[in-house]
Amino acid sequence: MYKLIRKILFLFSPEVAHDLSLPALSLVNKFGLLTLFKSSAKTKPVKVMGIEFPSRVGLAAGLDKNGDYIQALSNLGFGFIEIGTVTPLAQPGNDKPRIFRIPQANAIINRMGFNNDGIDQLIENVNTARGKGFDGVLGINIGKNLKTKVENATKDYLIGLRQAYYYADYITVNISSPNTPGLRTLQYGDELNGLLSAIKNEQMKLALEHKKYVPVAIKVAPDLTEKEVEAVAESILANNMDGLIATNTTLSREAVKGLAHGNEAGGLSGDPVKVQSTKIIAEFHKYLKGQVPIIGVGGISSAKDAEDKLNAGASLVQIYTGFIYEGPGLIREILESDAINNHKYNENKAEAETEPEPKT
Fold first, then answer.
1. pLDDT for 152 beyond 70
2. Is 197 a catalytic site residue?
3. Looking at the domain that runs over 2-346, which CATH code has it been given?
């Protein structure tokens, strides 16, 4: 069924298809028809960052930037949903066109530029979803506004952290999008240490204020050298971050060289980032030594791809581009994989069965 739906959607530009498909999904959900797509397989819950996830398979940030479609997406079978990236103030993002399909490579290039309705609207949408019965695991991905200078980025992240804290099960700090000028410089050296230190201090204040501990994960790029991976890992450990999401989109164009739209500016996702993402996960796993769990994302278009991420050191996986190309069947395939449901490799102290003490 999805192959036919995809064929129709791909007649439209990527952004128009996105703007058509999500409201349609919401409508189908209202009639209770999403159960036709959802797997009936029993999944094994797993505890990561002190949160019990119904399954290891989640939706990556970017598809539902404002939290407009949380319940519908959850009803497709995702074990967790991550919304955003959201910024303190609403912003339009980059000029259109800004999304490009590369079907020959099962890939997408996007240069959206954190287009979103702002953190206040996102929180209102989360409240609406919760009020209508959504009780799943929700991540909120935060970023900085385009007009905020990189040297002042910490201010924006702290605003996002404060606003999202009460409503999120976990919060992701996105410092790896290639579509906000200068953002990726926050992944390095003193800039990273300063940002993470400020986030940790604020997180601990908020934990006392709200009487609950909300984990914070850091999302990194795939375009890191091993020395850079080691340095980022050291900073994550030194600042007691709760999780790592690896990886965002890549700037490399080697895998799509010569293909239509292959030279468009922006971040490349899908199959071309698969191998590099898995390599980065393995490197981070080596340096984090099981002390910080990893959520693996990048080029997952089959159960085998998800298993590779877990074998590399991830505790959970997220899908995005693979979902666009493969549809709900991809979620079902992964959820029904015995290799993934029975995976033991990363059930270490990062996935302890007891609630961890808040990290200070």
1. yes
2. no
3. 3.20.20.70
